[in-house]
Amino acid sequence: MPLNPKEQQVWQFIAETQRKSGIAPSIREIKEQFAFGSTRSAFDYLEALEKKGYLKREPRTARALRLIDPAAPPPRRSMQIPIYGSIPAGMPDERTQSSADYITIDLETLGIPKPSPRIFALRIKGDSMEGAGILDGDWAIIDHGREARHGSIVAAFIDGKSTLKRFLLRQGKPYLKAENPRYPDLVPCEELMVQGVFIGLYRKAA
C-alpha cells in the first residue's frame, strides 16, 4: 500500500535520523520536526507506517523503530551447518568424525524450507566425483534424514569404510559409482549403509 506525502516525509525523516545518528528519532522529535499538535499525532503516523508495512516497532522499547522497504527483496534465511570432518571422494577410507567448525549457507540454495539438525557438512578429499562438479577441498552438504534413491549422491559406509559416491541399483541390488572413469564401481561384499544424501555444495572462493 503506497504512502501519502506526509507519511513519506515521516518515513524519510526516520531513515535520515538513523543514518546520521545510528538510532531512530523519539516520538517527541518526530512531533517537533513536523510541528504536530501532540505526540498522539506522531503515534498515528507510526501506526500508519506499520500497518502499510514500512515500519516495525518493538513494544516497550524506546526508539526501537525498524524501517522496512517493501520494494526490497526479502532477506535470505540462512543456517549454520556443522562440519563433521572429511570424507573420501576417491577409494573408500576411514572418515574423520570430529566436529570442527560451521559454515553458513542460505536455505534457498539448499532448497529446504527451514533449518534442520539432520544436516551436516563433510570436507571432500579426492577427485572421484569431479564429473558431478564436486572437487577436492569442497564441502558436501549432507542430509542424514533424506532417503537415498537411484541416482542420488550419498555419503555411504561400504564394507567398513566411508566414501562419497552415486547410489545406483542394478537388478535391485545397490552399488556405488564414481563420477570419474579412473575409479571402479563399488559393490558391497557385506554391507552398504547410506549415512546421508548430498543436497548441496559449499566452495570457498579462491
Summarize the structure.
The protein has helices at 5-21, 27-33, 39-51, 107-110; strands at 55-57, 65-67, 78-88, 101-106, 119-125, 139-143, 153-158, 161-170, 173-177, 192-202.
Helix-strand blueprint:
Blueprint: H1 5-21, H2 27-33, H3 39-51, E1 55-57, E2 65-67, E3 78-88, E4 101-106, H4 107-110, E5 119-125, E6 139-143, E7 153-158, E8 161-170, E9 173-177, E10 192-202
Helix pairs in contact: 2-3
- The parts where pLDDT drops under 50 for at least 5 residues are none
Count of strand segments: 10
| Distance separating the two termini | 44 Å
User: How many H/I helical runs?
Assistant: 4
Shape: rod-shaped
Q: Output the radius of gyration.
A: 27 Å
By helix and strand content, what is the structural category? alpha+beta
The largest sheet has its strands arranged as 4-3-5-6-10-7-8-9
Order of helices and strands: HHHEEEEHEEEEEE
Helix content: 10-25%
Q: If you average the pLDDT, what whole number results?
A: 88
